[in-house]
């Protein structure tokens, strides 16, 4: 995931706002789209509790803005059929997959850099927790955003042990950013004086914020 792009965020926000009339219920879609596009997400995965809704539409819009890929995990073929109807022509930009969200995210789609989890999924906390834990040991995943949406639909967030930030946007968002971090010592020698200068260079590792 590259540096923040205000232009991508703004364009995705505006496009989602214009397209929002096609979604059945508002869900903080504009914010979600701007968050994904602004962070230049290249591989987005959304796990839905039911059929795809405004969140998937928002992420599809962000993917179009960044030129990225989006995968939508559903529970059965009936939800897939409903999802394609809900998204209309935008369904052509989404890869639909039927299966277990936790297993797919931890294995097949482990390299995704933006993950959205529907809190209506019974095991949404277990999925988010597993992704946080995996990020601590995954040397290839330097920066991943994990977003739980529809958080207010479940009362569990009040006593949740998850290390997330609750954002009162739409139906409630649980935001997590996982990063790798480590410290490197760099030695530079002054060619004129011969003095050695030691610098500590920090980068993120295994932190969940």
TrEMBL record:
SUPFAM superfamilies (alphabetical): S-adenosyl-L-methionine-dependent methyltransferases (SSF53335)
InterPro entries on file: DUF1442 (IPR009902), SAM-dependent_MTases_sf (IPR029063)
Highest taxon, organism lineage: Eukaryota
Gene3D superfamilies for this protein: Vaccinia Virus protein VP39
PANTHER family cross-referenced by the UniProt entry: DUF1442 FAMILY PROTEIN (PTHR33593)
Protein name: S-adenosyl-L-methionine-dependent methyltransferase
Organism (species): Rehmannia glutinosa
Lineage of the organism: Eukaryota, Viridiplantae, Streptophyta, Embryophyta, Tracheophyta
